[in-house]
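User: Please predict structures.

Assistant: First:
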Amino acid sequence: MNAKQLLGVSALALAGATAFAQTVPAELWVGAPIATTASAASRSAVAADYSASRTMASAPQELRVGPADTAPGAMSRAEVAADTNLWIKSGMSQLANRDSFDPTSPAYRAQFAAYERMRNGPAFVAEVQRLKGSTIKQTTTAQVDAGTPAE
């Protein structure tokens, strides 16, 4: 009988607790809703603010270490691919992806110097020319395969 009485009392307590529960409107929790129908700024004002924030986000040259960043679109697709190929050929991709990576070690500095010699020397120009020549050849064979005469 005790189990039945305990079950009955807990059912009454649960029913009584839910009967007196009150709901609170969301405005009391988080505040009044924000109006989203109209904007205070025009599209051109927002675009001007965005472009101004992008120019201010970069650090002044006197606070930077190393060469200045190149502007977007300053390098061609072939130049980027040539730079990546030289990075891989110099062994920097394997050296920089190790768990024991130490940029101050003599081995890293020697490997990076080899990459810079390749990047700033005639190997870079040769790689760019090789890549530009291969894209021209691919375009020409694609035109021949499609049935259009190659020029």
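Second:
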Amino acid sequence: MFIHKRHSFDSSQVMYRAQELLDAAANRYRITVQVANRAKRRRYEEFDSIDDPAMKPTVRAIIEMSDELTQPEIISDN
């Protein structure tokens, strides 16, 4: 019997956060590249870690960056 694991994130929430990032950015291309670079970096940094295998690196990057946008007390690595 195969049990589906419920994702710890809502796709509509990810879309909302991505739109927040795009709205706050002066340059849509630049923010897109920053998300891609962070996702790539996180993918290689956490290759051995099994933090949340259901969450793709790009989704994790969007969530992290939107948190940094809405919570300035979080230290940014941009």
